[in-house]
Design a protein that fits this description.
Layout lengths: L22 H16 L4 E3 L9 E4 L12 E4 L6
Antiparallel strand pairs: 1-2, 2-3
Length: 80
Amino acid sequence: MTITKYPNPVLQTKAVKITEFDERLKNLCGEMRSIMYQEEGVGLAAPQVNLSIQLFVYNPLGEKLRKSQKRIVCNPKILE
């Protein structure tokens, strides 16, 4: 899994909702977190790794060892 660069179309495509919350999703989130920390980021969305699904992971502190700050967001909605 690698970081997708602009102008890759996946970055401009509406992502698909996640419907299966299983071991594959758990593993995917772990892989995404690893890439996020490797790139010294605080967040990573699935389209940024060439996956057109509604998913992002983040850690607002960007500290791998602060497990209490790890977050996974599936199928987010903007309410306002």
